[in-house]
Design brief:
The protein is an alpha/beta fold and 235 residues long. It has 2 domains: 2-123, Rossmann fold (3-Layer(aba) Sandwich), CATH 3.40.50.720; 136-225, Alpha-Beta Plaits. The protein has helices at 10-21, 55-60, 76-89, 102-110, 118-130, 162-169, 206-215, 222-225; strands at residues 2-6, 25-30, 46-49, 68-71, 94-99, 115-117, 138-140, 146-152, 172-178, 181-183, 196-202.
């Protein structure tokens, strides 16, 4: 696949080299030719000097044949503009924009532009290592409808089938981390104290799910979290 990387800083140059190593054809765009030195003398891809949202520079970089584009310059506005031009003007399906302001990231994700909020991601990763229980991992899809969250199992659910938690809350337990080993659950999987759950849940149901999880009981909570089942049925 042909991939365009706009921005040849530390992230862009590393991304471009990795893509070439994986067998993709790559074109890198940057305003300053000196930035291409980060790619190394043996870089097998193409370099284009210019502004990333300039149509002529994008065409020179092969945007009409590209299957993906990453906008990773140092400016939020530039990255979003590049991403929009690539998607709306050239029809590139796989587009991602690097964003420093996490508030903007949420807005653009709702517009259907996938973003990577650098500051938010870094902060989350640091906090998760300092205080594991304080900052759960969370991913939200580009439509802001579904999120994937990491939650420690509340003691009240230990010893009970995970399918019960799914049926009560309407979520899907995608995976479990148990004693440092991850696995996918089955209809027979019983929750154990210390389990860490990776759960897919509709954004609007997340608060209700957290309430049920903390309460450790199902009585009177089915309506709050949603009455749908997980789709798995015990035999």
């Amino acid at each position: 696949m042909h991939v365009i990387v706009v921005g040849c800083g530390r992230v862009g140059s590393s991304l471009a080299r990795g893509l070439v190593e994986d067998g993709h054809s790559v074109a890198v765009i940057d305003r300053k030719a000196v930035a291409f030195a980060r790619l190394g003398a043996d870089f097998a891809g193409q370099t284009v000097e210019g502004i990333g949202f300039d149509r002529d520079r994008l065409i020179e970089a092969g945007v009409e044949e590209a299957g993906a584009l990453a906008a990773v310059t140092s400016g939020d506005n530039s990255n979003i503009l590049v991403a929009r031009v690539a998607r709306e003007n050239f029809g590139i399906e796989h587009v991602v924009a690097r964003i420093y302001d996490p508030r903007r990231a949420v807005i653009y994700q709702r517009l259907g532009i996938p973003t990577v909020a650098t500051v938010a991601w870094t902060t989350d990763q640091v906090l998760r290592r300092l205080i594991p229980d304080a900052t759960p991992a969370e991913w939200t899809d580009s439509t802001a409808k579904v999120c994937l969250v990491e939650r420690a199992l509340a003691d009240g659910w230990a010893g009970r089938p995970l399918v019960e938690l799914e049926e009560v809350t309407g979520v899907r337990v995608v995976a479990i981390n148990r004693m440092g080993a991850a696995t996918t659950p089955t209809v027979r999987t019983v929750a154990q104290a210390g389990d860490v759950l990776y759960v897919a849940v509709e954004v609007e149901r997340l608060d209700a799910f957290d309430d049920v999880l903390r309460a450790g009981r199902s009585s009177g909570t089915g309506g709050a979290a949603g009455s749908g089942s997980s789709g798995r049925k015990a035999h």
